[in-house]
From TrEMBL:
This is Helical backbone metal receptor. PANTHER family: MOLYBDATE-BINDING PROTEIN MOLA, VITAMIN B12-BINDING PROTEIN. It comes from Congregibacter variabilis. Coiled coil: none annotated. Residues 10-206 form the Fe/B12 periplasmic-binding domain.
Amino acid sequence: MSLHKPAQRVIALAPHIVENLYSIDAQSSIVGAVQYSDYPEPAREIPRVGGVGSMSLEKIVALQPDLVILWGSGTPPGLRSGIERLGLPYFIDEVRSLADLKRSLQALGKLTGRISQAEQITAELQSSIAQVTANARTEGKAERPKVFLQLWNQPLQSIGKDHLLNEVIERCGGRSITDSIIGLAPLVSMERVLADDPELIIVENQQQSLHWNSYPQLHAIQSDNVVVINPDLLHRPTLRLLQGMQIICERVSASRRDLND
């Protein structure tokens, strides 16, 4: 979409959208956000229009936005219909790849009049990705370690083929064992994980990590390769994703050396 002039009153309907607006120095335009929009610290003070999945159209209208930025896979369809019905200008943000992240930042820059800031940030993003994945490129055709990334315990849940983190793992030189499952966050059987026997398991907290000690036969347990990564560094498609990517690349690289020694 395009606007006649840069947006001055923006409502961001996902925490990662708020964070990306801050990254391009467009924070002064944000007048509304949703629950868990907590980074950077000043974002905590932005007025809320509800929680993820339970946003108030009335609160959105009351803030008189000239742009509402929706999260494609996280904004309820009914809310989007209401925004359309009222004629509020809106933009749908959905990041399924690292290239999408670049395009998203550039689009936000154009919509808020921060084009030069967005261009600078995306150039830094590309350079940082190249640096983080340098080892994976030099290791060439060495065997790729199998990776299991856990989202939830009960029931066991992971990333599907449409998830950005599959590309992150691949760029790091690994292969997600769930990269062929349709969807963003499918349920996975324990039998499948045990059969695939990943060399690296990525979890979101210490409790999830301890759970895997019940399966000492797994390669990842035997090599002490279960790593806890703050979910905000993985599941928010922002510049902080690079921090999570750095950790994944380091652990995958160590696993590749073990496999190919």
